[in-house]
Amino acid sequence: MNYILSDLGIGLKRNLSMTIAVVVTIWVSLSLFGSALLAREQVDLMKGNWYDKIQISIFMCTKDSGGRGCSGAEVTTEQKNRIKQVIESSPDTAPEGVFGESKKEAFEQFKKLYKDSPIVSTVTEDQMQESYRVKLKDPQRYQNLVSAVAGLPGVDTVQDLRQYLDPLFKALNGLQVGALVAAALLLVAALMQISNTIRLAAYARRREIGIMRLVGASNFYIQLPFLLEAVLAALIGAVLACGTLWVGVYFVVMQRAAETFRVWQWVGAAETFQATLIMVVVGLVLAVVPTFLTTRKYLKV
Hints:
By secondary structure, this protein is of the alpha+beta class. The protein folds into two domains: 1-50 and 166-299, no CATH class; 55-161, 2-Layer Sandwich (Alpha-Beta Plaits). Helices cover 67% and strands 9% of the residues. The chain has nine helices and four strands; from the N terminus they run ααβαβαβαβαααα. A four-stranded antiparallel sheet has the order 2-3-1-4. Helix 2 (16-51) packs across helix 8. The longest helix has 43 residues, at 162-204. The chain is elongated and about 100 Å long.
């Protein structure tokens, strides 16, 4: 053990600048990798939070409507019953998932939304549209119901929040993929830097390694100082990366975003802890694998 520890100290002194470079590379790459993991969790949380609340809104005709199911007249009672029947008979409609909104209710909601706007005084209750709000069993399967009711007589328009949310989630997924690609490139750079550091250290001590092999030292005994050197650098970089991630989540997410945008569900301590565990494991793999592969060629006498 004394030999191994002294050998570790000698290796760190000889390659101090490269060891620092390895630590910094691992720090940056694992920080970005952990941020990408949390970004994926955040997108999944947002999807789960909003997709469960998505409702299809079916607006019915008024005298001024121009939809393809309208004929310049108010929707009739018979048409409304037919529309409701189609909605309730759809296998995608959730049980007790159909809610009707009258003109009066729509007008009251309109006045609440635009209570401080002068437009309220120019709109009357008669101009409002009756509608059905439909909650689905599976928010992902909305197209069948939309197609079934869009062309019915008495239907003006059919609106689904997915048409507004999907572009947002696509953009977030694009950012997530970009972060993962950048993190992967940095992890490859860290892998190569660790390999080069261990290769130079092993080359500088190749005669010593040959003597140890001749006197019967095992491969693992010879590789252990190099392995500890790489693991120590990786652990320091991983700890710094984990600390960076926790600080970022606390100040950016918990203190700012979560307080400002309360309507969203945000990643918290549980997701961050899970990401840091993955980061530490990845950091150790980055240290162990290239060390064993790089030192193998110097173990032959």
